[in-house]
Amino acid sequence: MTQYLAIHHPDNYDPDIEDEAMHRDIDVLNDGMMAAGVRIFVGGLHPARSAMSVKAQPDGKVLVTDGPYLETKEHIGGF
Question: pTM for the whole thing?
Answer without folding.
Answer: 0.51
